[in-house]
Amino acid sequence: MDARLSRHRTPSRMRREILPALLLLLGFGAALAPRSASAQTASADTVTLVWTAPGDDGLAGTADHYEVRMSPAAITASNWGAATSIGGAPAPLPSGARQSLVVRGLTRGTTYYFAIEAVDESNNVSALSNVVRWDWLYDTAPPAAPTGVSAALENGTDALVRWSSNSEPDLAGYTVYRRISAGGTYQPVSQAGFSGTQFIDTTIPAGTTQVWYQLTASDVSGNESARSASVSLALGGTVTLTTFDLQPAYPNPSRSPAAVNIPLSLPTAATASLFVMDSGGRRIRTLNLAGSSGGPQVAIWDGRNDAGNSVAPGVYTAWLVGAGHRRSIKLVRQP
């Protein structure tokens, strides 16, 4: 940090210069995986903290080290010194990088509060980060599906995919999926947790005449959103999606009384039916698609049969039939 911002020269400004960004809680579990964290067992005693690295002078440079503390009471600037110091924090990375720390030896059922400060090489200390409360409750709500997706030709052979930014505070990043034929399977083409709101696909196979893209958003707890609307790109530019498709449902597996979202796409003038069958091949529920417009949409199954009764736990199959096509996906209902 610039010597002009030393503690004895400008203490008030010094406290604002190297703020750790949002501190986020993943939930108790294993160390952070490339895309998400996951729980270990019911007796797990760990939690993973995730935050965005601050800079040193503003957004420039890197801090020297972190001070991470926890307490059974809400942490404030006045009681920071009484909070328990947690060792093992990683060395700070450049501003904007995502960093994490696994805290072990916690007592299940006890509420904990966590906060962090960044310190530079001259011992200038940042203001306190936001305080995170951990009460052993999982975050199972996925982010909203990305919107505003578009694709355009780039450099004659590549595709530039753009989308609108999600607003969730615990957003971890996006995944860009691509397929290269109308009936093909979407495969991820971006790295996990890709940040930003545009992606250049430079890996389109030679000879491909049309590609399709979808996006998902994921949060720091590993919850992945539904797929975005599909966009198709021909060598001459963007074209309208007219495919017949059924995408993976979410949440899946699901538990009563949670509803299941079933993303699908229909050609503009298609007439189609969506129904759910049990493991014995019996149709138990027909989901009304009458009046649906073409393009991407989401059908919702509430876990009930046509009589209005909740179905038993088991494996079910959703079928989308119409316009000369049939698509199916498995649905798992848990107790």
Can you describe this structure in just a few lines?
The protein has 335 residues and is mainly β.
Report on this structure.
With 335 residues, the chain is mostly beta strands. It is 2% helix and 38% strand. It folds into 3 domains: 3-134, Immunoglobulin-like (Sandwich), CATH 2.60.40.10; 140-241, Immunoglobulins (Immunoglobulin-like), CATH 2.60.40.10; 242-335, Macroglobulin (MG2) domain (Immunoglobulin-like). The protein has one helix at residues 11-17; strands at 23-27, 47-52, 65-71, 84-86, 98-103, 112-119, 132-134, 150-154, 158-162, 171-179, 187-188, 198-201, 210-219, 231-234, 237-239, 245-246, 254-255, 260-266, 272-277, 283-287, 295-301, 314-322, 325-334. The strands form 6 sheets. It has a 5-stranded antiparallel sheet with strand order 11-10-13-14-15, with no helix packed on it. It has a 5-stranded mixed sheet with strand order 17-23-22-19-20, with no helix packed on it. It is flat and about 70 Å long.
**Oligomeric form of this entry?**
single chain
Let me know the average pLDDT. 78
Radius of gyration, in Å, reads 24 Å
**What is the molecular shape?**
flat
The overall strand count is 23
Taken together, the total number of domains comes to: 3
Strand order of the largest sheet: 11-10-13-14-15
Corresponding CATH superfamily of the largest domain? Immunoglobulins
